[in-house]
């Protein structure tokens, strides 16, 4: 009996530990265990300075997905950003993606503004209308050195 | 009768070189110790699997190292998280960014404090007793008795402890991390009134998989180092200089704990610089 009590407590300990590991990796670390529950689209930006993998995608201030990959398009040296969006969000093919900053010095995120077209953007499609990130340093520089018209 | 000239120069030479001899002796002993520890670790790891693992022994060690440490790990995890919440709040509130408290607490616990404090606590709780137990078995010739009965002492004594440490350290670190984040919630949100939604949302947004895996890599490395050092010190109690019998066991236990703690912190720096 005593032996089983020891084995039971070891089992409880291991399960509790694994539960904590699961919480840390799946919930906090965003490890996708089962394929993920969204679909992919790409957006082409001129400049994505400061945007990070895993940043949020928002529409009207509501989170609808995450940035799932950033790479360079070798043809025209633009940035291709992969967006993983929730299944129930439908975009039109003239949606506008822009890179915004939360607060003055906060993290960058992608904001999607809905378009007016009737045609839906298919999974795997490309958002062509984009606005690049605003560089605060550049803006200040323009004011200081008189680049503003 | 005057000394022959050759012997006199020899004496002078050896007197002149005696500091170098001392340095050389210390260096050789250090390197030999390091090599012995490395071979001991390799042999212990090998003996976990060859011949087949002895699960009852491993379960027993997991019970001793893991289950019995849960309470103390949860306790220091809670208080570490709470004090990080307090300190972080008073620093961040100066910049009006106390919303970042969750990120500060979670990142410092998951990346750094969780693995290190867990390893140091288990060293104190289980590592010391590993060294003392093996040391007493050595001086009372129980290890020799095992060899006489054709039971491999490495497989019977050392391998289960190594295996159990490799299982327990990451699990205890995970428990420490989760309890620590809850501790930060207690002091930050319940006592100081930060919005709990902001706290947990910030954690969710900042912590990445690389942070979590980095913490676990650290805790696995610490497990190997601590178990190997503590078993090694106990196993070779009889080979120590400067103490026999009971004195030897006490010296072995002391140096096992001190060495483990120092090695944990040094390895932590090295690993962090590699993982960043």
From TrEMBL, chain A:
One Gene Ontology molecular-function label: phospholipid binding
Domain Mce/MlaD positions: 37-115
Lineage top rank: taxon: Bacteria
InterPro entries per UniProt: ABC_MlaD, Mce/MlaD, MlaD_Phospholipid_Transporter
Pfam families: MlaD
Identification of the protein by name: Outer membrane lipid asymmetry maintenance protein MlaD
Species this chain originates from: Solidesulfovibrio carbinolicus
Organism ancestry: Bacteria, Pseudomonadati, Thermodesulfobacteriota, Desulfovibrionia, Desulfovibrionales
